Amino acid sequence: MAQAPKNSPPSDTGGVRMASAPASSTSASRPERVPPQDLDAEMALLGSMMMSRDAIAEVVPIISRPDSGWFYLPAHQKLFELLVDMYDDPGKAIDLIVVSDELRRRDLFDFVGGQDYMIQLAESFAEWANAEYYAKIVRDKGMLRDLIRTVGQISEQAYSGIDDTREILDMAEQRIFEVTEKRVSGETEAVREAVIRLAHQLEMGEGGGMTGIPTGFPALDEYTSGFQRGDLVIIAARPSMGKTALGLTMAQHLAIVEHRPAVFFSMEMSSDQVAQRLVSGHAGVESQKLRRRMLSDEERFRLLNACHEFQEAPLYIDDTPGMTAMELRAKARRLKQKHDIQAVYVDYLQLMHMPGSESRQAEIAAISRSLKSLGRELKIPVIAMAQLNRMSEGRQDKRPMMSDLRESGAIEQDADVILLIHREEYYKPEDEEAKGKAELILAKQRNGPVGSIDLQFNKKLTRFSPLALVPEPYVPAGQDRVPF
Q1: Is 258 annotated in the active site?
Q2: pTM metric for this prediction
């Protein structure tokens, strides 16, 4: 591998610095450590890219243009950006002469070291086919510097002691997660992963346009095209309307039918109670019979089969009561890294806490923003159950509205999708027509239509299910079909 030339480009490291240790008698004599870097690999990588378009094609999935800071020398960063720009123009040739001309045009030729350095770059690689290997070295060294910088910032904030300890810990975990996530998102993937995604799309193809996480309710999926990545979905209702039941039904569908990992944070019920609900509903056995162990042989057989299915299901339950938003975010990040969860379910939002809030309204607003931020950070939907206030009880029409969301209008503002549950049977138990029926009101959808969906609700199983006949999707005036 070639060594850096005598007339090498400026060696400014772009502001990378090490975290400073507390002053001591030995620190003054300790030499300053050089951040991780490999100039030979950087030169070989740029030389490969400069001599072959195919090399650039190998490199861009590993180091994208916004990640040019992974190159140690600013001159190398600028040259990399230029090569990627030229690659984006298919009609532009890429070789030593053309690249040198483009550098002159951008007034960067002397900045990168001039003609002698350009020639040395062109001679610094053995095979352009090694570009992927060089790129991974450059990326890994750059990520180590990112980690050093991040740890330094965390250290300074910890030394200052200005912020609450829990806030500092949450910030530290988030920033380190961002560094590690870059490596995951930048990796190339086996064709198997792409084929699995294609298979899921084909399986859902009859409904058309499924781009998000399926809910298990075809009529709802027609409206939303599934819950989308990064969305905050609120399922709201008065007590005993079935918020938990609906959330568990959706989580069960995702884990059992779709085989996608998910986590259910239950702050109202223990994990054993959640498991009993899931198993009894899936087996079609009344939960009261399961609790009292008054089971027939057939019911016991169905329950054991359901237990076996859930043993294989990638569904995780956390029943920590009174969880703070920071605790939930930390747990969700770990589950995302370890199990690649595809959705987070929270039961329910008003049972969470945010220490240090001035009022309950401010606390709920901060929790809502935190859940929204979590979804965007992990790129998965966050589905949170929420309590409605008593306003609907005083109206003649008991159907809930978004303004009934309890304690804070911030939930209404932050949510991408708001679903309201209404069961007329609750208010009119003598009405035979209302028995077993539920209405799911899609009151808000940031990127789609709103409407209403009829569902079936089995009180004995505490489980929602779609109607046998799926209604036609909502069609806005002047359109043939809902645009997904």
Answers
A1: no
A2: 0.58
